[in-house]
Amino acid sequence: QRQMCIRDRIVHSGEYRKKNGQRGCVMMNNFIFENKTKVYFGKGCVGEYLPKIAAVHGDKVLLAYGGGSIKKNGVYEEVIAALEKAGKTIIEFPGIMENPTYKKVLEGTKLVKEKQVDWILAVGGGSVMDCSKAISMAAVSEKDVWDEYWAKKGVVDFEPMPLGVIVTASGTGSECNGGAVITNEEVMIKTDRDYPKCNPEFALMDPTYTYTVPTKQMVAGSFDILSHVMETYFSEPDEDNVSDDISEALMRGVITSLRAALVNPEDYTARSNLMWLSTMAENRIIKLGKKCDFECHQMEHQISAYTNCSHGCGLAVLHPVYYRHICQAGAKKFTRFAENVWKIPRNGRTDEEMAEAGVEALADFIREIGLPTTLREVGVEKKEDLKEIADSCYLVDGSYKKMTHEEILEIFLECF
Ligand code: NZQ
Ligand code: ZN
């Protein structure tokens, strides 16, 4: 311990920085790490573990799911069989839409209260998991959960209803965090909050469940993973930290595994990697000690609040343009991105030129995997609408270059 103290003093001293060629670097932020979700990963995990898990939970379970994909691919039958084996009473809550609304949260909450449900099992992608998290809070809280916990950051001083998830699509990482992104249609706001108490108790993750995800959604979900890592990576501190090293490996993993899954959608290794990469990007581990940016997510959420576009598609349109705006402010890091993620050789280029090359490699990848590149493609109809959307975006502090609503409008117009 004494040695660590001495090392700390040395590392943080100006002398150390000078000797090691560091500029006045920003140190790792302090943090508390918590992640209560127990993960069961791999082929066959639902049949093997769900009956045992269900056995130690209450009698009445709310089975929450989306628009019906689980009824077409056999997941529904497997889940029902496991719950019946454990003798559970199943209350079904179908129809959770992409970009779940607060109205849907209230509908689920009403059902939970009427039927006196004991716990919730969410089977689906990010939308089903997020909506279920909000229900798990609203089922217990006396307050209006939108006003108290989404319109502003609240304090969750109670235990939400127990929630478990079965993941059917990779992307958001919602299975291992307390994040829930809810759209309030009345006020046209889509807001994300991450409350550790909302982490699912358990997550069952069978990569074969993702074989039937439509290509467009698989690509969008994979880009969401990449975006989560980039939004974390492109923020201070920039030198010598665990997060950035892990992040580079995660980004290379998404690129390689997505290319493999596009060639063969039933490539178990590729699907397993995408599923676990998705968790690793959003289980808070890489965020530890980092400021985090997530301005691009804020912009996408508002585009989505107005157009209901797919989250990953919106991000794909915005990211390259946003990065063209900020890359010179973080040129060293964007250079590292170009070299370590895209393997672009220096060839006499300056940091500024390398930074741009990294952003262009990202833009090329987006075209290669067939994601949209304009806001028109994701449902923005008129240029004139963009000012109102830009003005509704939340401005974060973690970016290399703090945005203004005027600059967000410029970005939107360039994306149009
Ligand atoms: O609804 P069903 O019929 O199930 O179909 C879904 C939906 O149409 C389909 N799908 C899912 N698994 C499938 C499948 N189709 C065939 N086979 C399967 N195995 O995929 C479509 C999209 O599902 P959705 O859950 O909406 O996608 P995703 O996982 O990308 O979630 C997006 C939502 O999560 C939020 C987004 O903003 C958006 O609202 N996010 C949540 C985060 C979090 N909680 O940490 C972080 C993210 O940044 C993100 O904002
Ligand atoms: Zn995302």
Written overview of the protein:
It contains 17 helices and eight strands. The protein is an alpha/beta fold and 416 residues long. Strand 6 (179-184) and strand 7 form a beta hairpin. Residues 1-23 have low confidence and may be disordered. Zinc ion binds at residues 172, 224, 227-228, 297, 311.
Bound molecules: 5,6-dihydroxy-NADP, zinc ion
Largest sheet: 6 strands, parallel
Q: What distance separates the N and C termini?
A: 56 Å
**Element order: H for helix, E for strand:** HHEHEHHEHEHHEEEEHHHHHHHHH
Task: Give a brief description.
With 416 residues, this protein is of the alpha/beta class.
Quickly list its features:
two-stranded antiparallel sheet, binds zinc ion, disordered N terminus, six-stranded parallel beta sheet, binds 5,6-dihydroxy-NADP, 416 residues, alpha/beta, 10% strand
Layout of secondary structure:
Layout: H1 2-12, H2 14-19, E1 38-41, H3 45-55, E2 60-65, H4 69-72, H5 75-85, E3 89-93, H6 102-115, E4 119-124, H7 126-138, H8 145-150, E5 163-167, E6 179-184, E7 189-194, E8 202-205, H9 215-233, H10 242-263, H11 268-282, H12 295-307, H13 311-326, H14 331-340, H15 351-368, H16 386-391, H17 405-415
Parallel strand pairs: 1-8, 2-3, 2-4, 4-5, 5-8
Antiparallel strand pairs: 6-7
The chain binds 5,6-dihydroxy-NADP and zinc ion.
Residues 172, 224, 227-228, 297, 311 line the site of zinc ion (ZN).
